[in-house]
Design brief:
Strand content: 15-25%
Number of strands: 13
Distance between the termini: 46 Å
CATH superfamily: Cupin
Shape: globular
CATH topology: Jelly Rolls
Radius of gyration: 19 Å
Bound molecules: 2-oxoglutaric acid
Largest sheet: 9 strands, mixed
Order of helices and strands: HEHEHEEHHEHEEEEHEEEEH
Length: 301
Amino acid sequence: MQNFDGRIDIQIDTFLKNDQSASLEVPRVSIDDLTPKRFHHEFQRPGKPVIITGALGKAAPLQIETVVALVGDHEVPVRNYGALRFTRPKTEWKKYCEMQIRKIKDYCDLLLNGVAKQEHMYLALVEMGNTPLRSVIGPGIDLIAERTGLQKEEPNDVNLWMGPSGHIEPLHFDGLDGTLSQFRGSKKVSLFRPGLSSSLYPFKINSGLPPTFSQPYIDKPDFKTFPNLRKALAERQNVILNEGETLYIPLGWWHEVEALGDDYIASVNRFWKVAPVWRIALAPRAGAFYILSKLMSKTIK
Ligand SMILES: O=C(O)CCC(=O)C(=O)O
C-alpha cells in the first residue's frame, strides 16, 4: 500500500536533497542560435532534451479571452480525473480518467470558477490545426520547425492543453519526438531518460492503464513496493518551463508535467518524426509503440 502520511514526505525531501538531480541540467538555447544542422547533431540525433527560448513571440501569453473568442464554441473532449483520484495509489485506478465532451468556452468557465481545479479537469491534447486559433499558436511552432529541421508527424498539427494550476499530468512517455510550448504560465517538467524505464515500473499490458504510464508517484515514492525507483529518482531532471519557452522531449523520455502559478496554464504540443529512425533502438519501449503506430497507419517504409 502506498503510504501518504507526512513522515514519508520528510524522508523524500531528504532523499531528493541528497540526489544528483541538481547537476542534471537541461540546456536552454535561443531560437536565434539554432540551425537544423546544429539541432540535429546536438539534440535530435543523440536524443537529448533542450529548452528553446524566444520562439513564441507575442503569442505568449495566450489569454483565455482569446481562446474563447476564437474557438469557444468548439466541442472537445475534456479529461476528468475527479477530486479523489490523485489521493489513491495509481495501481488502484480502474482507468486513466473519464472523458467529457464540452464546449471550450464552458470548460474555460470551469477554469475561472475553480471547479476544474477542484475536480482535476484538464483540456488535453486537443487538435487546433484547422481552427482560427491556429493563426495565433501556429507561427511559433512553424518557426521551431524551420530552425530545428524537425518534421511534423502527419496528420497531427498543434494540440492545445489548458488546465488549472496544480494539475499534474502523470509520468509517461510518447512514441514520437515531441515539443511542449508554454503559451501561458509555467510548468515544472520532471524528466527521466528512456534507459530508466524498468526503474519507473510501467503498467503491465492489460492492466487497464496504458503501458506508457508509470505506476509510482515520483513525489510520494513508495520504496517498499517500488524499490528500484530510487535509481530513477537519482537521475531525475527537473525543468521549469517558463512562459514563452518550448521543451524538446525526445522519443521515449519519461515526463511528468505540473502546472505552476495560481490560476491557469495554456500550452501547445506538437509530435514530430523520429530521425534518424535507428534512434528507436535507444528507447526500445517507445520504439515498439512507434513501430506499432506505423504498422497501424500502414505508412512504414
Ligand atoms: O503538458 C502536459 O500536461 C503534458 C504534455 C505532454 O505530455 C506532452 O507534451 O507530451
